[in-house]
Structures are given as C-alpha cells and as structure tokens.
Amino acid sequence: MWAVYRKELEDHFSSTRSILLLTVILMVGLVTAYMVGSGLRKEMEGMAKPSLVFLLLFTSTGALFSLAQFIAFFGPLIGMVLGFDAINRERSHRTLSKLLSQPIYRDAVINGKFLAGLTTIAIMLLAIVLLISGIGLLVLGVVPGWEEIGRMAVYLVVSIIYVGFWLALSILCSVLFRGMATSALAAIALWIFFAFFMALGARLAADIVAPLPTGASVNAEAVLRNDRVRSVVSMVSPITLYSEATGIVLDPLRKTTRSLVLMGPMEQLSISRFQSPLPLIQSALIVAPHLVSLVAITVVCFGICYACFMRQEVRST
C-alpha cells in the first residue's frame, strides 16, 4: 500500500490538472480573503477591534461569497478531479492486471489511491487556510488567539472530511463505470443535484408533509413543523451538513443550527444573557451530529467502493 500511496501522491502533485485546480482555488481564495480583509479594516477604523475578529475572514461575504461558502460549493470539485479516473484509468491503459501481479493486493490498490487523494486534499486545504491567515495578519493587523486557532483547526478537519466524501464518491463512480467521461459526469450530476435541487426538494417535501395553512390561520406551530420537515430532508445533502457545521464552528455567536427560531416575550427579555460567544467545546457539541454524519457517509461511501472493487473481475487483456 505504501508503494501505491507514494506513486499516486507523486502523480497528483505532478499532474497538470491538479496544479491548475490548486492554482485557481488559491487565486479565488486569496482574492476573496483580501477583499473581505480590506472591507473589515475600513469598517473598524477608529474603533476598538472586537474579539474573534479573525474568524470574519472566513465567514464574511465579499463581493460574491465567503471563503466557507466557496469551499462548501466548489470544494467537491477537488475530490472529483482527484478520484474520477482512479480505477478506470488503469483499466483503459491495461495496467490494472499488471499492477495486481507485482504482487500487490487489491485492498492495497484501493486504499493507497484513497489515502493519496485524501493527503493531497489535506495539503491543499491547509495551504489555503494558512495563506488566508497570513493575509489576515497583514491586512487586519490582528493576531488570532488560541480560541480562533482551535476553531480554524476544527474547520480544517471538517473540510478535509467533507472533500474526502466527494473523493470516495468519485472513486466509487470510477469503479462502477468503465469510461472516465461517464464516471466524471456521474459525480458531477450528483454534485449538481445536492447543490441546486436538494433545497428545492426539501421545500417541496415540507409543503407536502406539513403544509402551511393559508390566510389568517397560519400559526407558529405549523411554521415550526414545516421548517422541521424541511431541515430533516435537507440533511440528506452533505453540502447542508458541512455548511451548518462550519457555520457554528466559525461563528461563536451562533447558538443553534436551526434557521428558524421563534421566541416568546420571556425569551426575548432574557436573550441578552446569551450574547457572549460560545466556547469551542460548546460549539463542537452543537455540531457533533453533523460531524458524525459526515464521517459516517464518507466511511459508508468508501466501504461500498471497497466492496465493489474487491468483487470485480480483472482481466489481463
């Protein structure tokens, strides 16, 4: 497995497509971070810098989107580019049978390819986070505290797991489909479905299961039931899981992942007691179900990929 891992890692860092992808993502990330940092510096001129301001580099929207939104939307492309031809490329070049006759076991091939892709993803995301942090030091003139460093570390780990899911999914498509173009289109189709159509499907499911009454009969209970159904259905999408998890981790002032919170008079009077930011441990406890779900779907997806590859027939011709 170490030989396969090292060879795949060399291929990833020497291939033109990986270099171009990393360059584009770094350029967009750096431009976004610089625009956000410049805007924050202008807004904070002549006033005391608030606490945990360094995290705003990742959550504040620039001209189009924030860095966290950019990784949530375009991060899957990294995993798909690294894994859509992991197995069928060997089949098309007729090197898979030769690779397995070294002798190299099948599980060493699939595990080495996945670990090499995951290492490449970790290095790419670490480079992006460090470069944006460097820009924040120069533009904002604020040194992050240990709380902010811990939150950025958790954000980095969650991002690696999230992009790792798309890597496992693209390798699964590479195992199931013999054509490289077919496997790439299948992975892109799933990404488009989760990114664009899952929210619409969740809204339609909520309107069917828990419809909102029309007219003056609308009440808080019906609105909460509709929002609860929509949230449960949208959790099927890994993009939703990642966005809500990173939103809580990077924003200490957020106390819940729910998008709709109805408060009565007593809650509104006592809400001032909860305006202080949450510690990292409390934020991690809130998003623990999301993190466990991301890890679970990644493991299940790679497990299916592993089982399918181990059962496939490998011909020498």
Describe the structure.
The protein has one domain. The model is unreliable at 260-274 (pLDDT under 50). It is 73% helix and 0% strand. The protein has helices spanning 2-14, 16-43, 56-59, 67-83, 88-92, 96-99, 106-140, 146-176, 180-209, 220-234, 238-250, 265-270, 280-286, 288-311. The protein has 14 helices and no strands. The protein is mainly alpha-helical and 317 residues long. The two termini are 24 Å apart. The longest helix has 35 residues, at 106-140.
What is the number of independent domains? 1
In terms of DSSP E residues, the strand content is under 5%
Shape: globular
In terms of structural class, how would the helical and strand content be classed?
mainly alpha
Give the fraction of residues assigned to helices: over 70%
Radius of gyration: 22 Å
| Number of helices, counting only DSSP H or I runs of 4 residues or more | 14
Instruction: Say what oligomer this is.
Output: single chain
Record keyword descriptors for this entry.
single chain, 317 residues, mainly alpha, 0% strand
List the helices and strands and how they pair.
Elements: H1 2-14, H2 16-43, H3 56-59, H4 67-83, H5 88-92, H6 96-99, H7 106-140, H8 146-176, H9 180-209, H10 220-234, H11 238-250, H12 265-270, H13 280-286, H14 288-311
Helix pairs in contact: 1-7, 2-4, 2-7, 4-7, 4-8, 4-9, 4-11, 7-8, 8-9, 8-11, 8-14, 9-10, 11-14
Q: Could you give a quick summary of the protein structure above?
A:
With 317 residues, this protein is mainly alpha-helical.
